[in-house]
Write a structure and sequence with these properties.
It is built from one helix and 63 strands. It is mainly beta.
């Protein structure tokens, strides 16, 4: 030992761990000089005992240091003058030597006394390296966190900054720690920080031992420490809908890190913190609007991540579908199957409007209706739907009402009847007929839409009434009929309904002969009665009520010769009569009463040959007459007077069989003809109309069941009605039918 040398006791302390490729060995001592002391030593790499240069040895308290040379040697010189100025006795120095590799302290030696030499110390160097998956331009610091573990206890943690190769997206760096003979395990992971010193990424943890070489960190995303945030898929909603935002948020790291705040910005409004990730808002009542819903999440490392979803708000009007147009018969049942299409909303109200009778709610789009008995050819069924946002839509189903001959109510008469006479007013059918119920009587009934109701009491008669003729003038029903009794043999009685009972209209029209083919009309509240009267020959007569008596219009029996098959029509107060004229071999003649009395309309006997079953109608001042044209096969023929002569309407004898013409009627300028024909042993009814320059069948020919008798005809609002006496299977009752 040199003179004046003191012993130094060295305490070696491990201060951290990291990755390194080699280790350092430390040795040293003190060198006392005349002017102070010099603390010297050597530093070696453990693996090959080569000198370690550029290692800093520093007295921690005094601050004196030296750097190892190429031989690994250092000397920290401390002069006596310096110690004296610091008030330190050279014999009582107490300090610690720290050894630095770069900026990291890799070894400490506590100097407690002067010794000749310092003991050898070894330092381990490890290299840590890896790559990033993707680059974040905000990376400013990369740290390796090394943990030394003995058994299961952590005995040291050290953080070391690593170098970043931006172009290669790679990192690497050395970490040093003291080598000892004790066995230690190590683990390391890498943390990445942005320019705000916020942790943005963390690698997986890699475990290694003292004997490990270079340590490779598996590649990782440098911002995987940020929360994973998904606000939700873009969506399309309806106005006034309640929208629930249900995002996905996950903290990427496996430790106890957590989300500390969650904020939503809805539709450009400011961010509002919510107590939970989920939130709701109601879509406004604006259509075609877009709402950006921005979610902003912050974790306890101060990472802030946002994500945006788009909510498109549309006026989702439901589309109503009433169904395909169809065709059915009146009074039949029809199942309606309304439907609605809508993306988001829900239809909450279903309403149907059938034939303009107002909207009525149904539990769904399905409903069963009875087709109303309306006169129109089409029934409109309108479906109205309303959704939960108040949006409405309508669709129309048009139902073509198929036409057919159908019964109007049940049987009109309660017993056997005959000679029905049909009339109508304001769409209401009336029918007069003869029946035997506790004696013979005339009964008048009307149809109220559901059933036949009597118009006052029946009119009793002491004899069998015949040939009732019903006429409604100014909404007042009149009925004329023929009676034969001891007082008024071959008389005509006329009654009118006063509102509560039937009253006589003047006295009975008496005759000394027989009466047939009677019909009546009313003009300016004056009843007219036309008939054929037989007094040695059939003559045509027309009577009108003049106060309290019946007077003949013109000459009583105005026809020059015998009359067969008389028909009568009144036009604006001018009476017309049509008949088969005996003087012309029962060809057709038409007369009218004017200022000069009765005069022919055109030539007399103008039909080709003799005719039967005449029916006269004056339409808009033009006389028309229909008859059975026996000279042309017995079919029905209609003629009109053109002002100079009679001409056919369409072809003559247009029916396909002999026709007993019962009635000619006009409605809205269209002529109709009702007739009977024989089919084997039964008598059938048929109706034809003139349409498109030809006569066409109205519905089925022979539409009645069984055989009929006494056909009466009327057309109201283009709906043909017939009244007739049914056969034995119908109890010989009065039946009314219509085509619609």
């Amino acid at each position: 030992m040199k003179k004046g040398m003191k012993k130094l006791l060295l305490l070696i302390v491990l201060v951290g761990t990291a990755f390194y490729t080699c280790s350092l060995d430390f040795a040293g001592g003190t060198d006392e000089t005349s002017s102070g002391i010099g603390l010297c030593g050597y530093v070696y790499y453990k693996e090959n005992n080569h000198p370690a240069s550029n290692v800093i040895a520093k007295l921690k308290q005094l601050g004196f240091y030296a750097v190892t040379d190429k031989d690994g040697r250092y000397t920290i010189a401390v002069t006596a003058d310096t110690l004296g100025k610091l008030g330190i006795n050279i014999d009582s120095i107490l300090d610690t030597v720290e050894y630095y590799q770069g900026t990291a302290v890799v070894h400490k030696v506590k100097v407690t006394d002067w010794i000749d030499t310092l003991p050898a110390v070894y330092i381990i160097q490890r290299n840590i390296y890896g790559k990033f998956l993707g680059d974040d331009k905000n990376i400013t610091r990369i740290e390796a966190v090394v943990t030394r573990i003995k058994n299961t206890d952590t005995v040291g943690v050290k953080r070391v900054c690593l170098w970043y190769n931006v172009a290669a997206m790679a990192f690497s760096g050395f970490v040093y720690f003291q080598y000892t003979t004790d066995q230690y395990n190590y683990s390391v992971y890498v943390d990445v920080y942005d320019r705000d010193s916020i942790l943005t990424g963390r690698s997986r943890t890699v475990e290694f031992t003292d004997n490990a070489g270079d340590i490779e960190i598996p590649a990782f995303n440098p911002f995987n420490a940020r929360p994973a945030v998904f606000a939700g898929n873009d969506t399309l909603v309806s106005i006034n809908d309640t929208i629930r935002l249900h995002p996905f948020v996950c903290d990427s790291l496996q430790d106890a890190r957590s989300i500390v705040s969650c904020e939503w910005s809805i539709g450009g409004a400011g961010f509002v913190q919510t107590s939970a990730l989920d939130t709701t808002f109601q879509a406004p009542a604006d259509s075609d609007a877009q709402y950006l819903c921005i979610l902003r999440v912050k974790d306890n490392d101060k990472n802030v991540v946002t994500d945006t979803m788009k909510v498109v708000i549309c006026k989702d009007v439901p589309a109503a579908y009433a169904g395909n147009d169809t065709a059915v018969y009146r009074d039949s049942l029809l199942a309606l199957h309304g439907r609605a299409t809508q993306k988001f909303g829900t239809v909450v109200t279903w309403e149907w409007n059938i034939a303009g009778n107002g909207f009525k709610k149904t539990s769904s789009g399905d409903t069963i209706i009875k087709i109303p008995a309306i006169a129109a050819d089409t029934c409109r069924c309108i479906l109205l739907i309303t959704d939960d946002d108040g949006n409405c839509d309508m669709d129309t189903l048009n139902i073509t009402l198929l036409k057919r001959w159908e019964r109007v109510g049940d049987k009109v008469s309660n017993a056997e009847a005959f000679n029905p006479s049909l009339s109508m007013v304001n769409g209401t059918p009336y029918v007069a007929f003869c029946e035997f119920v506790n004696g013979w009587r005339i009964t008048v009934k009307k149809f109220n839409g559901a059933q036949w109701l009597p118009v006052g009491n029946s009119i009793p008669s002491d004899s069998t009434p015949r040939f009732p003729s019903l006429y409604i003038g100014n909404d007042i029903p009149y009925v004329a009929y023929v009676v034969n009794n001891a007082i008024n043999t071959n008389a005509i009685e006329v009654k009118k309904f006063s509102g509560s009972q039937w009253e006589a209209t003047g006295p009975a029209i008496t005759s000394t002969g027989y009466i047939s083919d009677m019909s009546m009309s009313v003009w300016n509240d004056t009843p007219y009665v036309a008939c054929r009267e037989y007094t040695g020959g059939w003559k045509a007569i027309l009577m009108k009520l003049n106060g309290s008596q019946w007077d003949a219009v013109g000459k009583k029996g105005f026809s020059d010769s015998g009359v067969g098959m008389l028909s009568f029509s009144m036009y604006q107060g001018t009476p017309y009569a049509g008949y088969t004229d005996e003087a012309f071999n029962y060809r057709t003649t038409v007369m009218k009463y004017g200022s000069n009395g009765w005069e022919p309309v055109g030539p007399k006997g103008f039909s080709d040959t003799y005719a039967n079953y005449t029916s006269l109608f004056v339409c808009n001042g033009t006389p028309y007459i229909a008859y059975q044209d026996n000279g042309n096969g017995g079919g029905a023929t209609v003629m009109k007077f053109n002002g100079a002569q009679w001409e056919p309407v369409g072809e003559k004898s247009f029916t396909d069989c002999p026709a007993n013409v019962q009635s000619l009627f006009f409605c809205r300028g269209t002529p109709y003809v009702a007739y009977c024909y024989q089919m084997r042993d039964t008598q059938k009814a048929a109706v034809m109309k003139y349409e498109g320059n030809r006569w066409v069948m109205v519905g089925d020919k022979g539409f009645n069941k069984g055989s009929i008798d006494g056909l009466s005809f009327f057309v109201d609002n283009n709906i043909p009605y017939v009244a007739f006496i049914g056969d034995y299977n119908n109890g010989y009752a009065v039946i009314v039918m219509r085509f619609r």
